[in-house]
Design a protein that fits this description.
Shape: globular
Structural class: mainly alpha
Distance between the termini: 60 Å
Order of helices and strands: HHHHHHHHHHHHH
Number of strands: 0
GO cellular component, one term: membrane
Keywords: Membrane, Transmembrane, Transmembrane helix
Membrane topology: Multi-pass membrane protein
Radius of gyration: 19 Å
Main location: membrane
Transmembrane segments: 12-30, 42-62, 98-122, 134-154, 166-185, 192-216, 252-271
Helix content: over 70%
């Protein structure tokens, strides 16, 4: 049983990411993905939120909170790793702009590939990261399925339409299976983090990240939602790659896994609340 669970986790993660990217490609065109990124203000705000404000906030937060070094290392890695693989799916959950979520994900992924190898050694001694080591799994798991989906959409629209329900089912199955497996695998670590208060630091990290992204995510509610969840959900794949290849202490990987899980849960909860809050605000505006 102990051997099956890690395999299930990998299958769930891969099926979720690949199905999400492939399904996103089946729904969009290159022009639709590129269009939101022509808004220079939105692009600058996205880069500022993810590569400047969140890392600085987390770095200074950790200076004032008494945590062990492995936990701090894991949180800093998560703060620096941006471009979550789940962003298109999260955009659907929060009813955000799907095209912008895909363009933003690629923009942040590309930024992370160059940003992490430069910045991480400056804040964590002894860590060495190569850009290609980060880029390779992201290209294989994310950009390749997206490109295939876009190609099918452009040339075989009927086939793309028929494949969409299948990718949605695979994506949802991978998402909920992955969440369930990780809750089981990391249950004891979650309880430990609750007892030590570390999980509340993770929660502050997530809430701050979402708030910054949401406030900077204009011009519309649909882009605010996307930048909010895109900033709150970090690049788990890149962070885990760094954690497993540079650290012997298992607590570094554990905090990355638990923080990623917490981020996903909080974002999914926000996804259910955001449309209600926006509707309430709109209604108040109409009444006034």
């Amino acid at each position: 049983m102990n051997e099956i669970i890690p395999i299930l986790d990998k299958i769930a993660f891969l099926s979720f990411v690949v199905a999400t990217m492939f399904g996103t490609g089946l729904k969009l065109t290159v022009q639709q993905i590129w269009q939101p990124l022509r808004n220079s203000r939105l692009v600058i705000s996205s880069l500022l939120a993810n590569f400047v404000l969140v890392p600085i906030f987390v770095y200074f937060l950790l200076q004032f909170v008494p945590l062990s070094e492995p936990v701090k290392d894991g949180l800093i890695i998560m703060a620096l790793a941006s471009g979550p693989p789940a962003l298109p799916k999260l955009a659907q959950i929060v009813k955000g702009n799907l095209a912008f979520s895909t363009g933003l994900m690629m923009l942040l992924m590309l930024g992370t590939i160059f940003y992490l190898p430069l910045v991480l050694p400056l804040v964590l001694e002894g860590v060495q990261v190569k850009s290609w080591d980060i880029a390779k799994p992201l290209i294989l798991m994310m950009l390749a399925p997206l490109g295939i989906g876009l190609l099918i959409k452009a040339n075989y629209e009927t086939i793309a339409f028929n494949l969409q329900p299948i990718t949605v089912k695979i994506c949802n199955l991978g998402l909920f299976l992955g969440l369930g497996v990780r809750l089981i695998v990391h249950f004891s670590e979650i309880i430990f983090l609750l007892k030590t208060g570390v999980i509340f630091v993770c929660a502050i990290f997530v809430v701050f990240s979402f708030t910054v992204g949401y406030l900077l995510g204009g011009p519309g509610i649909d882009t605010q939602r996307v930048l909010g969840v895109g900033t709150a959900q970090r690049n788990f794949a890149a962070a885990l790659l760094i954690g497993t290849s540079n650290f012997d202490d298992p607590n570094v990987v554990s905090i990355i896994m638990v923080t990623s899980l917490l981020m996903m849960v909080i974002v999914m909860i926000l996804g259910k609340k955001l449309p209600e809050l926006d509707h309430a605000q709109t209604k108040e505006g109409v009444v006034s």
